[in-house]
Design a protein that fits this description.
Elements (H helix, E strand, L loop, with lengths): L11 H13 L3 H6 L17 H14 L4 E4 L8 H14 L2 E4 L1 H6 L1
Parallel strand pairs: 1-2
Helix pairs in contact: 1-3, 3-4
């Protein structure tokens, strides 16, 4: 899902990590539908995603960058409670510091 497209450091290890993150975020069914799998272009000029899929793809892209700090506000607001909890657990597992906006705290 063009997570690291154009990155000179993109290799098999990064691709494996991207696949693992996508699976952790519950994106396996989406990946199975995409003709290009992880390499499929998504967005306005590519494969159209639901709001929930977009949110989880966004999270996968963030987590693939291995950030120390993740700040979330509205980015997970479109997820149903189960997907929200799953995504939040993945971020907590992979980021050293997680900051949640007040609007997200109200949905949990």
């Amino acid at each position: 899902m063009n997570a690291r497209r154009g990155d000179p450091n993109y290799n098999q290890a990064v691709q494996d990590e991207a696949l693992e993150i996508c699976q952790e975020l519950g994106l396996s069914p989406l990946l199975a539908k995409l003709p290009g799998g992880l390499e499929q272009l998504v967005g306005e000029t590519g494969w159209q995603l639901s709001q929930g899929e977009r949110s989880r793809v966004f999270m996968a892209r963030v987590l693939l960058q291995q950030p120390q700090v993740v700040i979330l506000d509205e980015s997970l607001g479109a997820l149903d409670p189960e997907c929200f909890e799953l995504a939040l657990n993945r971020v907590e597992k992979r980021a050293e510091v997680l900051i949640l906006g007040r609007s997200l705290l109200k949905t949990t």
